[in-house]
Amino acid sequence: KTVHKQWDISYQFTHSDCVRKLAVTINGRTPGPTIRAVQGDTVVVTVKNLLMTENVAIHWHGIRQLGTPWADGTEGVTQCPILPGDAFEYRFVVDRPGTYMYHAHYGMQRSAGLNGMIVVAAAPGSADAEPFAYDGGEHEVLLNDWWHKSTYEQAAGLAAVPIVWVGEPQSLLINGRGRYNCSAMAPDAACNATHPECAAQVFAVVPGRTYRFRIASVTSLSALNFEIEGHEMTVVETDGHYVKPFVVKNLNIYSGETYSVLIKADQDPNRNYWLASNVVSRKPGTPTGTAVLSYYGGRSSPRAPPPTAPPAGPAWNDSAYRIRQSLATVAHPEHAHPPPPRADRTILLLNSQNKIDGRIKWAINNVSFTLPHTPYLVALKHGLLGAFDQCPPPETYNHTGYDVYGVQANPNATTSDGLYRLAFGSVVDVVLQNANMLAPNNSETHPWHLHGHDFWTLGYGVGRFDPAVHPATYNLRDPVMKNTVAVHPFGWTALRFRADNPGVWAFHCHIEAHFFMGMGVAFEEGIERVGDLPEEIRRCVSTKGGHH
Ligand SMILES: O=C1O[C@H]([C@@H](O)CO)C(O)=C1O
Predict the structure, then answer these.
(1) Is the CB of 121 under 6 A from ligand 1?
(2) Which CATH number is correct for 337-538, 2.60.40.420, 2.60.40.10, 3.40.630.40, 2.120.10.80?
(3) Whose CA is closest to atom 5 on ligand 1?
(4) What letter would DSSP give residue 167?
(5) Which is the closest atom of ligand 1 to the Cα of 442?
(6) What's 188's DSSP letter?
(7) How far apart are CA 268 and CA 204, in angstroms?
(8) Atom of ligand 1 nearest to the CA of 517
(9) Which of 75, 248, 251, 524 could form a disulfide with 106 if both were Cys (CB 3.0 to 4.6 A apart)?
(10) Closest atom of ligand 1 to CA, residue 438
(11) CA of 370 to the centre of ligand 1 (A)
(12) Prior bond to 467 cis, omega within 30?
C-alpha cells in the first residue's frame, strides 16, 4: 500500500523547553509526526517549502532508497534544495521493518526542529517478524538537544575566526519537550514555565505488561544516556536490525542511532518514574532531560513528578562503559546476516581536528569535506565533470607513524569536495580512526552515519588501528548491521558494506556542527545503473553545465 503525507514546512514560534523559539516545523509542529508504515509500503511525502527565504531538504535516515537514490534528501549529494514556494515529492519504499527517523539535511537545519520518527512494522508472515513479544504495546521516544540560538548564529560562529563554538545545549528534549529554568532568565525573556508545549510527556503503562520502547536520537551534538528509572531495559533492535537481547540499566545512544528496548511494568504502580536522558562523552552543561512513566490504576496522578531525583546517568567520561555496550550489540542468532568473509578494498579514515586558513575544521585523511553546489548525483549522471574536484580523497593516512594520543600539526590539510568511487557490488571495509583534537588530552565520540546502506560492525578498539593485526580480531560471526556507529575517544571502529546500491551516498559524523566543519565523505557506486533523475532535484544546476 501507499502511505501519503502532505507536509507544510514553516517557521513557527514554539516552546519546546518553555522558551519561545522560532523553529522549523512540519504542519506547525516540532517534532514532526511519526511516519507509520508496513514493510514493503511505498511512502510518499509531499513537502511544501513555506519558509519564505530558506531552502529545505529532508533525509529519511535508515531507509536505504534502493532504486530511488534521488529521494535520499541530502542537499548537495542527492538533490538541489527545495526552494521557498516549491514542493517536492519524496517517494520511496520502506523495505525493512524497524525504527528509523527523518530530519532536515541542509546546512544546520536539523537543529532548528525539523525531525521525527519512522516506524516500519513487519509485514504479516514476514521472515523479518520480531523475534520477541510484548503484550503492552509500543511507546516512541525521540531524543534531542536544543539551543536557544538560531542555527544561523551557530553556523556563522563555527565559520568565524576565531571560532564561536555552539557550546552545550540549553535543554534536552524527550518527544520535543524539555524544561528550561525560567527563573535563570531575564524577567522579560519569553520563558513560560507553564506553556503546554513544554509539559513533560507522560508514558502510561498497565501493571504487569511488557512494552516496546522505540528510541531514536536526532541530537545535533550530544551523546546521550537514556534510562527509565527502576526498570531494566532489554535491548532487542538497533537501526532496523534485531540484536541478541541484552539487559541494561541505562542505554547509551548516539545521534543518528535508534534502539528498541523491552521493559516490564513490574514496579510499584502507586508512584511515577522518570524517563531521563543525560549527556555523556562531553562534559555536561545541560540539565537532565525528563519525561514521566505512570502506571494505569496506580494512586499517583499521571502528571505528578516522581518522588525521587531524576537519574543522573553514568560518569560522562567513562568511555570503557560505552565501549562495552558497543561490543554487546551483536546480531540476533536467528536474524544474523553473516558478512562476506573479506573485503575487496579497505579505506582507512583518520578523523582529525585541523586548522585550515585559520579556521577550525574537521578533516578526514587531512581533507575537510565540502559539498558541491551541483549535487553529485546530478553531476555524475550527466557527466558534469567541472561540478566537483575530480581528484579522489586519500585511501589512508600515516597509519604507522601517527600518534593518535598527541596534538598533531596536520600540515597540508585541505578542503575538497572530491569523492570515493566504489566498484559496483564490491565489498568495502572502512576503518574510522579517532585521534586527539587540537587541545591536548581530548578526543570526542563521533557517530558516523552511512546513507544508502547498512554496514556490518566488525570491531572496535582503542588506540591506533594496525592493519596487520586488528582485522584478525574482527567479529565475522555475528556482527550486527547498523547505519550509524560510534567511534569512541582515541579509538577505531571497523565496518564493512557491499557497494550494491546505485547512487551517491554521504558518510559523515552525525554531529551537525562536525559535518558542517567538514567531517564527512561521499561514496559513488553504480552511477550508470541509476534511472532517469526527476527534474525536480536539478533546479540548482546550470543548463550550461556544472561549474564550481
Ligand atoms: O568541533 C569542535 O570544536 C570545539 C572545540 O574543539 C573548539 O572550540 C568542540 O568542542 C568540538 O567538538
Answers:
(1) no
(2) 2.60.40.420
(3) 165
(4) -
(5) 6
(6) T
(7) 14
(8) 1
(9) 75
(10) 6
(11) 18
(12) no
In this structure, the number of other CB atoms found within 10 A of the CB of residue 348 comes to 20
Testing ligand 1's pocket by substitution, the residue of 166, 279, 281, 360 carrying the most ligand atoms inside 8 A of its CB is 360
Strand order in the sheet with 202-205: 202-205, 289-295, 273-280, 223-228, 250-253
Alpha carbon distance 129, 466 (integer Å): 39
Q: What angle is formed at CA 329 by the lines to CA 487 and CA 522, rounded to 5 degrees?
A: 40
Q: Is the beta carbon of 437 within 6 A of some atom in ligand 1?
A: yes
ipTM, two decimals, is 0.98
CA-based Rg of the chain, rounded to a whole angstrom? 22
* CB 509 near ligand 1, within 6 Å: no
The domain limits of the chain are 2-121, 137-326, 337-538
Amino acid at 110: R
Task: Provide the CATH number for the domain formed by 2-121 in this structure.
Answer: 2.60.40.420
Q: Do domains 137-326 and 337-538 have the same CATH topology?
A: yes
> HSE (CB half, 13 Å, CA atoms) of 519?
29
Q: For residue 169, give every residue at least 6 positions away whose Cβ sits within 8 Å of its Cβ, in sequence order, or none.
A: 145, 146, 147, 219, 220, 221, 222, 286
**How many Å apart are CA 342 and CA 347, to the nearest integer?**
13
The third-level CATH classification (topology) of the domain covering 137-326 is: Immunoglobulin-like (2.60.40)
In angstroms, the CA 32 to CA 302 distance is: 24
Mean pLDDT split into 10-residue runs, the chain, 548 residues: 98 98 98 98 98 98 98 98 98 98 98 98 96 98 98 97 98 98 85 96 98 99 98 98 98 99 98 98 98 97 96 98 98 96 98 96 98 98 96 97 95 96 98 98 98 98 98 98 98 98 99 98 98 96 62
The pTM for the full model equals 0.98
Q: Cβ(360) to ligand 1 under 6 A?
A: yes
What's the gap in Å between 165 CA and the centre of ligand 1? 6
CB 163 less than 6 A from any atom of ligand 1: yes
CA distance 415 to 407: 20
